[in-house]
Amino acid sequence: MLLYSKESFLECDEFPFRAFLYATMPQRADLTHYHDFIELVYVAEGRGEHLYKGSSYPISKGDIFVIPPFVQHDYNVIGDAPLDVYNVMFLPSFLTSELQALSKVTSFFNFFYVEPFFRQTLDFESHMKLSILEGQEIKQRLERIIEEFDRKALGYRISIKALLIEMLVWLSRRYEERIVAPPIQASQSKAIQSVCKFLEHHYAQDISLEQVCQLCGMSQSSFTFKFKQTMGKTFTEYRNEVRIHSSLKLLRETDDKIIAVAENVGISDLSYYNKLFKKHTGLTPREYRVKYRRDAGES
């Protein structure tokens, strides 16, 4: 399977971004691939299928969606006309602080993180399709971003970031207008399991209990009780466990400072991270790193 790498597609390490309009032609050869960056896609013209993690979804003019990193996908064109899509590609680090701030807004959180994760779940129906007028506006916004990227005039990087943030806020507002029911319609136990799987992929996000409850369509008291009944621990305890487990790999395989490891898994307070780590492993992060590398060297 093809890997579309950030080195090949994005501008550079200092500015990991790219935007362009691409036409997928009928009878094009299979190009199933994945990439190590985020991709925001808007279908400008045509009809087709989006092959996403082994499933197929119809797409057509007006559809807009996010493809997370390392997800297998491709397109098939339906009919004789090409499928024209706008692609906006960037690393999460490109908008680190902005994405953290926007993630506190439930509509953005659902559009950017929840919808891509639950796209394969039949009960999940928060797919966004823009109207004709909205489509005209998003095309104007995308064309401005592409023009800045292609021309690379003075200050283009600052301009692109500002335009992208403004567009993401605009999309969040359009998404909020469409939400009339909780994203997940399922039994409470199934909803809890889905949330756990989501946390395993998005443990670094600053997800509030309120957002999770809304995602499940449950009150906070009901969710709290049901989560502990199902998982044997509280939501916070489970998330902390996932974060600490994920940090083990970073401690083993990188030379990042301990504070950087903690921040990479969503914990900004170093003393709190050290306390959690010791509670779960019996060691401090530094002791774990030294012990692992000593043991690895002896084997």
TrEMBL record:
PROSITE patterns associated with the record: HTH_ARAC_FAMILY_1 (PS00041), HTH_ARAC_FAMILY_2 (PS01124)
SUPFAM superfamilies recorded: Homeodomain-like, Regulatory protein AraC
Ranges in a coiled coil: none
Keyword terms of this UniProt record: DNA-binding, Transcription, Transcription regulation
Ranges of residues in domain HTH araC/xylS-type: 193-291
Pfam families: AraC_binding, HTH_18
Domain of life: Bacteria
GO MF annotations, alphabetized: DNA-binding transcription factor activity; sequence-specific DNA binding
Protein name: AraC family transcriptional regulator
Source organism of this protein record: Paenibacillus hemerocallicola
